[in-house]
Amino acid sequence: MISFKPCATEENAFNYELQKPVTEELYELFRPFGYLNFDMGNARLGEVFILNRAGKILLKLQGRVGSRNLKVTILDHKIAGASDMKTAEERVKCQLTKYQMCMGCLACESVCRFNALSVKEEKDGKIDYRISDEKCMRCGECVNHFIAGCYMRKVLSIKRE
Description:
Elements: E1 3-6, E2 13-17, H1 24-28, E3 35-37, E4 47-51, E5 57-62, E6 69-74, H2 85-101, H3 107-111, E7 117-121, E8 127-131, H4 141-144, H5 151-160
Antiparallel strand pairs: 1-2, 2-6, 3-4, 4-5, 5-6, 7-8
C-alpha cells in the first residue's frame, strides 16, 4: 500500500512512499482540509500549502509530480475535525489511501451533504475525483465517514479474510 516513516528533521512531518506517482489529482484529496495554495511553496520542491479560511497554514505537501515520494508536514492538527496529531495523521493517510485505491464506488460522493464531490470514470477507465472549492464546507465528512480511507478498501479487506 503505502509506506511511511516520520521525518527525522521536522516535527510532525511524515515521509510517504506511494505506489502511485504524485499527480495534480493528489491535491484534490486535500481540499477537505482547507484551501490549496500553489504560489506560496517552492515549485522546484513540489511544495503545496493547505490553508484555513483565515490564511493560516495547516499542512505542507512536498512531492514533485511524477515522484513516488511525498512529505506531509502537519502544522495544525485541527484538520477535518481532528482533535489531536495522531487523528490528523490518520486523516492524511485516509486521503492518501483514496488517492491510490479509488475505484469510483461513489460512496464518498454520496456522503457529501453539500454536493461538493464528483467522482466520474473516464473513457480510459481512469477515475476523476473532484472537490468544488466553492461548495466544500471543509466539514471532513468525506474523510471521516470511512475507516481506512475508502469504503471499497474496507469491503475488499473483509472479503479476503
